[in-house]
Amino acid sequence: MDLGPDARLRLEPKDEYTHPIEAASNFNESMYINVFDHEQRVGGWFRVGNRPNEGHAEMSCCLHFPDGSAAFMFQRPEIHRNDRIAAGGMAFEVVKPFEHLRVSYEGQVCFMKDPQDMANPKEAFKKNPLVPCKFVIDFRGISPVFGGEKVDEHGKPVEEAADEAFARAHYEQHMRGTGTIWVGDRSWTINGLGLRDHSWGPRYWQNLYWYRWMPMAFSDDFAINVSIVQMASGKQYVWGMVLRKGADGKKEYVLVEDARITSTLDKHDQAIEQTIWLRTKEREYTVTGKSLSLVPLRNRRTRKDGSLMHTRITEAMTEYRCNGHVGYGMSEYLDQIVDGVPVGKHC
User: Fold this and answer.
1) To pair with 246 at 20 to 30 A between CA atoms, which of 10, 57, 218, 265?
2) pLDDT in tens, 260-317
3) Is residue 296 within 8 Å of residue 119, measured between CB atoms?
């Protein structure tokens, strides 16, 4: 998160709830969370994004299973308000700010033995069964909260150009999630770890050239989140944090100062393995990741001149290893697709 001169981050308990709708046509307010049960190697990620000025929300539900299969659902239900983060059968409830969230879903999911089917969503929903899905998962924070809203020296939110912005306000927190997931005639009672975020402000998925986002949790005391973001201008941002216990025994985040990622791609130019090097003010870490279940998604937007922009986002449940620790999380790779090739293929 690039603050620029004279800016700072502000975060208050009221920010756990929704915010006034802004003038930008692409104003977005969203909550996202993931959770993975380390013993069962079952988990998923869930998101609701409100776009009231565009007249709809975005609801995503994605579940990953130990045999590599996955279940997915996406909807754009009509909305014109921003009074709650709930749409398409999914709801985020703030039980206690910065401490306890409850996420629920009741609807259908497309169950895929081969998640690659989602590269063509129309065909995926045609050839794979739609099955009932339901869950209620309670998430409780295992870490401080990192991030906030970008404001100037007077406390006024920093304005960003709608065609360049992605998340003016953004915060994250590692959490433990417990609950039961039902898919078809099967159920899993999970106790896992994950990461949530909450953001608001103007957003187009096409405003970034490519990014790599890898949230992971090894235990209640050790977790990492690292991101590399590349803009079309050539400017690159590296940010993230490492959760660990301080000298006083209290858990805290130490900021990532630098990071590099080397990825192994499959025949579809999708990352199935990665090696991550990162440095904090204290030490260096090397993390290796291996995809266990990968779902390719896409987002399209038509420019004012009528041309189509195509963004691919691959979402993979990933097993991570670092200094003898084994953890789980996501490896999320966003790329603009130009002439059929992901622009960040080299990373």
Assistant:
1) 10
2) 999 999 999 999 999 999 999 999 999 999 999 999 999 888 877 888 889 999 999 9
3) yes
β partners of residue 197: 32, 172
Q: What pLDDT is recorded for position 3?
A: 59
Length of the chain: 347
- Position of tokens 């393995």? 273
pLDDT number for residue 346: 85
Query: Taking the alpha carbons of 14, 139, 52, 90 in that order, is the dihedral positive or negative?
Result: negative
Provide the phi-psi class of 80: left if phi over 0, else alpha when psi is between -120 and 50, else beta.
Answer: alpha
| Domains in the chain: ranges and CATH | 8-342 (2.40.370.10)
Cβ(216)–Cβ(328) below 8 Å: yes
Residue 298: count of CB within 10 angstroms of its CB: 15
